[in-house]
Specification:
Elements lengths: L17 H7 L2 H12 L9 H19 L3 H19 L8 E8 L2 E8 L1
Antiparallel strand pairs: 1-2
Helix pairs in contact: 2-3, 3-4
């Protein structure tokens, strides 16, 4: 029909880090949040504390976008914290991660932990 759609998922469960997971997961939505929210906040071209805030806030808003329920906001906040922790922990960037699951408010959520 002549429509060309972008790739939206690139095997995210084969990722070796939280950052890589988010680069592979829901690419169209993630790129929208990156381009219109994260970069508008200053992206990574700001002080380190502000950069952490930008990451965390972007994930909070993405959680809110997924649903108007606090569990989604918590989900977004936790994923933002996981990404920040990955940048803070020495030697964890690019390390292999194993995924686990836990429940928040009846929602089965994904958790990453160092393998």
């Amino acid at each position: 029909m002549g429509f060309k759609l972008m790739k939206n998922f690139d095997r995210p469960y084969f990722s070796k880090s939280v950052a890589e997971f988010w680069k592979r997961w829901h690419i169209s939505l993630s790129s929208w949040f990156r381009d219109y929210l994260y970069i508008s906040l200053g992206g990574s071209r700001v002080s380190r504390p502000r950069w952490y805030f930008n990451l965390f806030f972007t994930f909070l808003i993405s959680g809110l976008w997924h649903g108007a329920n606090w569990t989604y906001v918590v989900w977004g906040g936790l994923n933002g914290l996981y990404l920040i922790m990955e940048t803070l922990l020495p030697g964890q960037r690019g390390a292999s991660f194993r995924a686990g699951f836990w429940t928040v408010g009846g929602c089965r959520c994904r958790r990453f932990a160092p393998a």
